[in-house]
Amino acid sequence: MKRFSLTILGLMLSMSTVLSVQVRNTPGVVAATVPADRTPAEHHAAEELSEALTKMGIKRLTLRSGLIRIHLGATREAVHDCPDIDSNKLGPDEFVIRTVKDRLDVLGGRPRGLLNGVHRLLHILGVRWWTPWAADYPKNTYLTLAPFNIHEKPVFEYRDPYWHGAFQTEWASRNLCNGWNEGLKDVHGNGTVYEGFVHTYYALVDPKTQFAVHPEWFSLIGGKRTAENAQLCTTNPELRKYVLEQVRKRLRANPKATIVSVSQNDCFNPCQCDICQALAKTEGSQSAPVIALANYVADGIRHQFPNVAVDTLAYQWSRHAPKTLKPKPNVIVRLCSIECDFGTPLDQGRNIPFATDIKDWSRLTRRLYIWDYVTNFRHYLQPLPDYATIGPNMRFFAANGGKGLFEEGDYNSEGGDMGELKNWLQAQLLWNPNQDDRKLTDEFLRGYYGPVAAGFIRKYLDLMIAAAALTPISIFDGTDKPYLSYKTMREAERNWKLAEDQSAMDSVRLARVRRSHLGVQYVWLSRWNAFRSEAQTAGDSWPFPDSKEEAARQWLALAESKLPDGTPPVKAVDEGGETPAAFIAKIKG
Fold this sequence. Notes:
Blueprint: E1 6-10, E2 19-23, E3 30-33, H1 40-56, E4 60-63, E5 66-67, E6 69-72, H2 76-81, E7 95-100, E8 103-108, H3 113-124, E9 128-131, E10 134-136, E11 142-145, E12 149-152, E13 158-162, H4 169-174, E14 194-195, H5 201-204, H6 207-210, E15 220-221, E16 224-225, H7 237-253, E17 259-261, H8 274-283, H9 287-301, E18 309-314, E19 331-336, H10 352-364, E20 368-373, H11 390-399, E21 402-408, H12 419-431, H13 437-449, H14 451-468, H15 486-502, H16 507-526, H17 528-538, H18 548-559, H19 580-588
Helix pairs in contact: 1-3, 7-9, 12-13, 13-14, 14-15, 15-16, 16-18, 18-19
């Protein structure tokens, strides 16, 4: 038998270090050697390529002009082929993929560029990592590539989908995320490393040890200093010195940190002392004392820690930008959308005040991050019809100076409303928000649920999008909201049942459909008596067992089951950690 081999060669800075990966005309045979002076992430890039090509069963990879060799990194040939590209000047996530004659070159900046380039190449070859437990490696023994020239870098420098599934590091890396919460290691080029993540005032100034000694460091509320459900007196000179020293200690102990959090507690009660309020009045916003403290710390660390930025919040009472007080260049402001209507794009209708805040902050700072929300924290499984606003919102963030984006979803459990879709979709848009989000959504539905079931699930999404357009949507809504009316939920249930019927011959995809169906059934179980009455009045057939106890038993069995593809059971139905079993016990009572 004639043997063909695909060879991938790489020389980084030293011409004597060679990386080779061979895929021979024998299924499953992949050999790889990696030089000692490559970074762990560049080593991992070769491993990822080898593993994926083996899973795809590729025996021959060609260009239209004939056989092809792939070069990873700055080989002599790649440098010759790409004289306009200096790998040393590429950004930390930036890469180039280019075909020249019989070669395909992948070049990338450090630390993640080459690994990102390999993952993008595999994406071009049809590989999809839908969830940490569900991936497609298309089988294609002989594959011919058209010539191409790709040069990409992310729109957002910080890309963090805060979902339970996104915490699986390989999935996050393969979908080009670089957030702190994904736990990316050296083999992934690391990610954004925070020292303290958010709400750190009391982590830096512990009221248990400091309030008795320095009550003047804490909020003055109603004429009294307090550390109960309050903030810091951010204009106090001695408090500022103490915070700065605490930050320096933390950074010395965490040399990998690139961002340190100096941010308000997750409550209200900013300090009402004369100095804090004079600054707030002058600047027209309670954010001014917050920024003043962040600026002080930023000035205090910029020489000793030149690569570290200070992160603070524009959140609830501090959301509005000051008139003139600019954050220092090494200060990151994270603007939070918590009060918004999530069924409407954030630059329209009821969200115009938030849009104004984004524009005002963008005028003051070149490093604006966004903390966005994509779940219902009181009811994870309940439909939150933001499916058509995720893409427009990300494009709006990017167009108005957003440099980083944190998308807070169901972080302590799988199983939330369309969580698999939202997590994957957001990862794609975090890299490039200018993609067509509807096409990406349909791609996911076909790949994850199957092409036939996808049609009915798309009808469900469009149904909920239309319902959401008629009323405000909050991330704390109850199950009695107008967009969850009996009429809408009846049609939603019909579409999910049809999706299940069309998946009956595929046990893996049927399990995925049934798991995602739980969200609509969550509403039916919560409103059982009201919906039963409306069905009787309308003369509609009842789509569940007559016994609520039996319907609840079936629901709980599905929620607590592990899917055939390895997706874990639902552990929580809300941010507080209520279990599916506790939810069923509550509604049965």
